[in-house]
Each structure stands twice: as structure tokens, then as C-alpha cells.
Amino acid sequence: MVRTPPKPDTETLSLELPKTIKLYVTQEQFAALAAVNRDLQLERTAEGELIVNPPTGWETGKRNRSITGQLDRWYEENGRPGEAFDSSTALILPNGATRSPDACWISPESWDALTPEQKGTFANICPDFVVELRSDSDTLKSLREKMREYMDNGAKLGWLLDPKHRKVEIYRPESPVEILENPDELSGEAIVPGFKLNLRRVYGE
User: Fold this and answer.
1) 165 lies in a domain?
2) What are the residues facing 54 on neighbouring strands?
3) Residue 1: pLDDT above 50?
4) CA 154, CA 120: separation in Å to the nearest integer?
């Protein structure tokens, strides 16, 4: 007798959605999706909307590598204070959104205050310092909304880098956004003491 092999519990299907349709998932569903779609950068808004970010081009990938590399060098040279993460890390903000900054840093005081449960697969925390790098597929509107969300959820310093126009928007809590035209370098100020980002290296000059 020939036995029919059992069907898998899940089947992979391709589905294209028009921009007018949005998908909403719970935190548990988001975690399950992220676990089986490791090649995608997924995010979730505070309302539960699933956001799928497309893969970056080589220019954005190269710039991201420089940003992360410079932050990591500062991190290692300063005795590994707190925790630093790259763009593959998802964090759950206090408002319930799950976000993946292009680079971020969490102070030792903030990180050590988390319980083991809060340091789960996706740590329940907003970084003290965040960096977002605009790629060709990003709109300034969406990135500015993310930066304001970070500030509203506890971030103390944020940089929005726009390589195409050579502009940087600096975000601080309860302060107007500061816009710099083609700066060579950015300072971590008192929030990330001693850290300086060389933008010429980020832009490949």
C-alpha cells in the first residue's frame, strides 16, 4: 500500500498586495514571521501594521557598514559601554511598535534596568541614540515620522542622514529639529560621549 506523505503544517505562497491594503499582526505573529523570513527587514507600527522593507542597494549597504563600523569602533575602544546594535536588530518600543534603526546604542543604565523577560528575542526598549540612513526607496516623510516616534518613546539623540542631498537632521527631545547642510562630521554630544561619525567615510569620499 502506498502511503501519501503528510502535508506540511505550513505552505509558502507568494502574495502581492496593492499599497491600499495593509496587513496587521500581533507581536506574537510578528515574531513568527520574523523567524521564518530572516532575509527581510520587518517592522511593525504601534497600531500593528506590518512593514516589509526591501533589500538595500550596494550604496546604502556600504554606507550602513561604515556607520555601524564607526559606532562599533567607538564602542570597543570605550570599554563596551551599554549595548550597540546594527540594522538587523528589532526592538519593541514602549508604544508597542517594533523598529529596526540602521544603527543604535543603549546606555548601560537603560540596558541594565531591563528584566530578563524584557531582554527577550526583541528587547522591550527604545535606544538612547538612533541613526536612520535614507535609501532611494525611503521617503523623508516616513523617516521623519520614525524619528519623532523614537523621541516620543525615550530616545535622547537621533540622526537622520540624507546622502542624496547631503543633509542631516538632528533630533533631540522637546527641541526643534536641527538641519545641517553637508557636514563633515557629527558628534554624539553628551549622549554618546566621544563618538564622532565621519560622514566623508560614510559617503565613500
Assistant:
1) yes
2) none
3) no
4) 19
